[in-house]
Amino acid sequence: xxxxxxxxxxxxxxxxxxxxxxxxxxxxxxxxxxxxxxxxxxxxxxxxxxxxxxxxxxxxxxxxxxxxxxxxxxxxxxxxxxxxxxxxxxxxxxxxxxxxxxxxxxxxxxxxxxxxxxxxxxxxxxxxxxxxxxxxxxxxxxxxxxxxxxxxxxxxxxxxxxxxxxxxxxxxxxxxxxxxxxxxxxxxxxxxxxxxxxxxxxxxxxxxxxxxxxxxxxxxxxxxxxxxxxxxxxxxxxxxxxxxxxxxxxxxxxxxxxxxxxxxxxxxxxxxxxxxxxxxxxxxxxxxxxxxxxxxxxxxxxxxxxxxxxxxxxxxxxxxxxxxxxxxxxxxxxxxxxxxxxxxxxxxxxxxxxxxxxxxxxxxxxxxxx
Length: 370
What we know:
The chain has 370 residues and is an alpha+beta fold. It is 32% helix and 28% strand. The longest helix is centred in the last third of the chain and has 24 residues, at 302-325.
């Protein structure tokens, strides 16, 4: 393939990773984003061991490790006490932990690294039209002043999120389902009244409640109600609220990950609940996988490799979310009485850690070669 200016639309974690991985493989991509700077809200937090392995060859992982909060355990608590603890340090591979870092910090770090490699994100540039006719791709890009530019990139990579313009312009359907209720999240500063060494899931039947730390005193609170503070366990003491939002959980998967020489990565191709912290990580993995296939000339394999992985992750996180959020009497009994026993078995611990670490999906082939 000719090494021209591959166009990447979207400068979130997936788009930035695509650019970083293409650049280190000898390409000079062009990356655009319609917003002026990364969103100031934290949004995704978890960075899993697979992502740390993927970003290690570029040198990004060392920078993430300097900024992030290491999470070594996952805790499950019932109405009164702890039901189960999973020790993440038992995970296979070089990184026996999850890293917690607000997404805007991750994006800022990735963009700074890309700039150091001589590649700037073109901000306030929006893709307004995309066509593909035989061997010619036509992209129309509009800048902040409204001026339009017509270009013909050899390839377009849509990393432009759940409302992807690239996906829409290619006529690709994005099907799935949504949960009926709004969920809420609040980023807060806390009194350290419980362990901040990893996420804690609380059974607050009829609601589910989670706390994910990203420093010794800062954490995200999330619940299946619009205001998590309404169902917050009394043991938590909030000192300050930094940000709050609501969201609707949806599980959607695009029918085709590629159409000709137009490709989708990350949320443009799949969205799902935050259970297991797989969302941003799955998009980063898509991005690095595609960059590798661009460099080897095997982009025709991209959808065959990535869509089954996304389908599997969506199924797993949907089942996990519904189990934790269910108010069924039988499931509540199972969570509170049987899960503490089952959860200590090698089978459960291994399966759970494989989901968290992404070891339940194929290992990136190029990492075994580097």
